[in-house]
Every structure is written in C-alpha cells, then in structure tokens.
Amino acid sequence: MIGIQLAGNLTQGLILGGVYGMATMGLSLIFGVLGVVNVGHGAFIMIGAFTTLLLFTQLGLSPIIAIPVALVIGMALGFFFYYTVIIRLTEAPELASLLATFAIGTLLEESVKFTIGTEFRGYNWDVGKISLHITTLPMSKIYAFVGSILIALLLYLWFSKTRAGTAVRAVMQDRKGAGVCGVNVNWIYALSFAIGIGLTVTSGVLLTMFIPVGINPYMGGAYTLKAFVIAVLGGLASPYGAFFGGLIFGLIENGTYTLFALVPSLEPFAMTRFLSFLILLLILLIKPTGLLRAK
Amino acid sequence: MSSKIARYYPLIPVYAAYLILFLIGRNVTGMWQLMAMLVFYCAIGQAFNIFLGMTGYVDFGYVAFMGIGTYGMALSISHLYQIEGLGMWVILIGAVLAILMSGALSVAVGAVALRLRGAYFAIATIGVNEGFRFLIEGAKIWGGSEGIIFSGQFTHIFGRKTASLISTTWADIFVILVACLGAFVTLRFMLGKIGYALMALREDEDAAKVMGINVTKYKIIAFITSASLVGLVAAFAWGLKLTYLFPDEIFDISYTVECIIIVLLGGAGTLLGPVAGALIYGLSKYWLTIILPGFQLLIFAPIIIVIVVAFPEGVVGVLKRRVRGTVLEKFIV
C-alpha cells in the first residue's frame, strides 16, 4: 500500500521536478553568464503565474497561449532591468547586485500587491486526466511537464546551433577572450539576462498547473529557495545541470513528503520545506560546486 | 588620556539621538509608540550593520535571529512562571536565553555558510528563515504553528499593573539600552583589531587571507554579535512587549527588508548610519501609513535600487565626506 503511494508520489514528483528544473534554468543562465545571483528570482515566477491567471480569468485564454505572452513579458522586464540597473553593477562588488536584485523582487511583489491584492487566487484549467495504476495525473500537469522539456530542448538547440547561443557560451567561458574575438559582451549580457528572466516568467505559467489556489504576490519566496537548492544541486552556473537538479529535487520533495506523512507528530508539508533548506546547507558544506557538474 | 576619550566622541550624536527620542516620547503625549518604533528600527539597524556594514556580506534570512530571540523570552516566561520569587529574573533569563539561542543559530549557519564566498553565503541564508520557521511548524516544536501565548503567565508573575507597565514602557526602554549597546559594540569593533581585520576582508578577501588574517574567524565574530544583538532586541520589542508570538509573524521576511533599507539608506559600515536610516525610514513609514497604509516597501524598494546604483555610501557616508577637515569630523564615523 505504502509502496504504491510512494510510487504514485514519485511519479508526481518527477512531473513537478521537470517544471522545477525549467524554473531554475533562468537563474543558472544569469549566474553563469553575468555572475549575478538573482535573489528576486521567485518574484518573476509570480509574474508568470499572474499573467496566466489574468489571461485565463479575464480573457478566457488557455495557459498554452500564456506561455509566449509570459516569455515576451519576461524578456521585456529582463531588458528593462538590465539596461536600468544591472548594467551598472556587473563590475561592482557582489553585494551590490545581490541587494539590487533583491530590491527588484520586492518591487515586483509590492507592485502586484498594490494593483491586485494579497488574497490567494487560482483558476481551474480542466483538460481531462489520465489514470495510471499508481496515481491519477491531470492532463494539465502533463502538458506542463512536456512544455518544460520542450523549452529546455529549445534552449539547448539555441545554445548549440545559433551564433548568438555560441557567443553566450563563449562569454560564459571567458568574457575577456570573447570580447577580443569580437563578441559584443554587453549585448550578450543583456540578451542572457532577458532570456533568463523570460524563462523564469514562463516557468511561472507552467507552475500554476500545480498550485490550484496558490497564486499570491508573495508566492515567489518559496520558489526562490527551491530554485537555489536546485541550482546548487546542478552546479549553479549550468542551465542543464539546473534542469536535472530540478528532476532530482522533485523526486526528493515528493518522496520525503510520503515518508514524513507516516510520522503522526510531523506536519509533512512544512517538513519538506525545512528539508529543502537542509539539503541546501549540506550541499554547500560538502560540495559547493554542485553535485552534478564539477567545475 | 584625552585622545583615548576622544575616540569615543562618535557615540555622542548616536546617544544624543536616542536621548532626544526618549525625551520626546516621555514628554509629548501620544508620541511614545512612534518613538519606540524609531528606536526599534535604530536597534535592528545597528545590529544588522555590524554584519552587513562591516563584512560586506548580506544575510537574507536575518529575521530568523529575531524570531528565535523572541522564542527565548517566550520560553522563559511560559516555563518559569510557576517558580515563586523569580520576579524580574524571568526577564533576565529570557534575555540571556534570547542571546544564547540566536547566537547558537548563527554559529550553526555561520559555520557552514561563512566558509563560502559572498554569493554562496547569500544563497545559503535565503533559506535560514523559511527553513527554521518550517522546522518549528513541521515538527511542532514550541507549539508549532500555533505559537506561544504567554500573557496569562506574564500577568501571573508580575500582577496586572506591573505587567502592563513592563509591556508598555520598560520593554521599549530595554530596546533603547540594547540600541546603545549595539552602537558601543560597533565602535569597539571599529577601533579594535576586529575592525581592521573586517575592513581588510571587505576590501579584498584574498589579500586579507594572504596577509595572515583568519577571515572566517572574524566573519563569524561579526555574525554572532550581530545575531545575538538582534535576538535580544526582538526578545524585548516583540516578546516582552506583545507577550505572544506566532511563527508566521516573527519570521516575516519584510523585517529583513527593513534592516537592509535602514542600513543602506544611512550608510553601511558607519556608526551613525543606522540611526539616520532608521529615522528616515521610520518617519516615512509612519507618514505613509497615514496616506498609503502597508505600501512603504513599494516606495522603498526602488529607493534601495537607486542607492545601490547611484550612492552606495548612504546619507552618513556622504555627510562624512562633507565634514572632513572640520570640527565635526571627530563625531561622525
């Protein structure tokens, strides 16, 4: 009985993990290219979630349409914040960019709180479900999973096949060297930041499939923490590492939830949140360069 | 001799500010609460500055230390109230417990995270607050998510009249004293070996290491000091004042944001900075509460961005440059 339940939860965890992974790729891309840790990461996920919610409830558009809309909004925000703030901080001490991205996150949260309010909201996109022997999966979650894999693949193709993607990889490896070879480093920074934010906002669309009534201006905080655990699992500067880190994290989160639920004196949901913090500390203690990809 | 005393002149404007706040609060009707809030911001600003200002590291989970400090006071009062004759000692035990508990948490976090460089440290601290809160709620420690309500026990110890006097007046006076202590500790650090070591590591950690400075040790000293001080502030300002606590309120990340705003606004790494930042922030918040309640962070988030980008020295940093070469130089550090 518990075996079936565990298998079911792990399946759910894998599906969710794929979306987690995609939700972290933007963070890793930005750190890998610019060396900036986006502490306001979760707030951008929240923007994606609200985009989906508003398109669905106000205009009746399906979340599939919200994906390109979120990507455009995200990239616009990315370019905006890059040219107004981040551009001045790439050479400054780390503290400056940490504080600035944190403030950007707070600004987004407070703006949404100001315009929409703090109540928890949600929407219901019913597109049927599949019953497996071990668990029942709503189709919306499967679409989200497939969507994250497709987006991760597209990013991979963009990186390996296009000129701009190659230039981004060149800057990741050696900024000065890339500049000497004629790469416009500043433009690559702007583009990477915009794509990173675009991916993050898009991931907010996919994540709404997993939180029926959890859309709120402050929802991002939890995802910031999870994204850092995942990014550190995957080696922080590697977007693919992040994707696989997400899969592992999804499995850990749902697997341990099942186990924590067996202990009557524990509140399993809160314990999984504590566990993610513990994992973060442990990885930083043992192998700060990430488990999946050593530098 | 006189030069030794002169080194402590910078405390004069800080203490003068606290004294003025206290006097306004005592003598102008209806101002006590506002003054208490301003002193609270000064106190948490002073404590936060010892870490962020002196090391250049930022702790995004700082409010966790305030939360655990509040638990120190709550546990002392709610467990020891039956022992007769303890009286005021309960508060002292609560204060000591607050220092020990927030200190212990900072040792645990610092021992892991402070071995790492800036970005990784910041990443590790993001989870401290959430992680700790969810441990308390998840494992149902100390009442779990229901918190601790100890007003009954508190009244049991002191009687209704004294209890209310402690909550409404003495709790705030204790906060002022901790704020004084914070300023004193900051100046001691600045004048002593610790200050030089921290300055060296803030400018260039590798160089400091090569010169034989045990950077991890000094970072941890600053971290523990900062954490214990803020734990003590919260024990008084939240524990003793409200006589109840709920985990979701005392681990609210917006206090971390407030600490960051106060220190940056005033000038990180300066002695007078947190006071200036606290006054500017506290008064604006008070004013904004009237015209736009609950949205002070909407106003201040872009202000942080502007400070970081355009004038990272803060108000006192700029002031310090202005008064260089004048009599005031000795007083503004």
Notes on the structure:
The complex is a heterodimer of chains A (295) and B (333). With 295 residues, chain A is mostly helical. Chain A has one domain (2-286): ABC transporter involved in vitamin B12 uptake, BtuC, CATH 1.10.3470. Chain A is built from 11 helices and 2 strands. Chain A has a two-stranded antiparallel ribbon with strand order 1-2. The longest helix of chain A has 33 residues, at 2-34. Chain A starts with a helix and ends in a 9-residue tail after the last helix. By secondary structure, chain B is mainly α. Chain B has one domain (2-330): ABC transporter involved in vitamin B12 uptake, BtuC (Orthogonal Bundle). In chain B, strands 1-2 form a two-stranded antiparallel ribbon.
In DSSP terms (H or I, runs of 4 or more residues), the helix count of chain A works out at 11
Low-confidence stretches of chain B: none
Radius of gyration of chain A: 19 Å
> Helix segment count of chain B?
15
Derived from helix and strand composition plus strand pairing, the structural class of chain A reads mainly alpha
How many structural domains of chain B?
1
Order of helices and strands of chain A: HHHHEEHHHHHHH
Q: Which CATH class of chain A applies here?
A: Mainly Alpha
Topology pattern of chain B, helix = H, strand = E:
HHHHHHEHHHHEHHHHH
- The oligomeric status of these chains comes to heterodimer
For this structure, the CATH topology of chain B is ABC transporter involved in vitamin B12 uptake, BtuC
Count of separate structural domains of chain A: 1
Distance between the termini of chain B: 20 Å
Which strand order do you get reading across the main beta sheet of chain B? 1-2
Helix content of chain A: over 70%
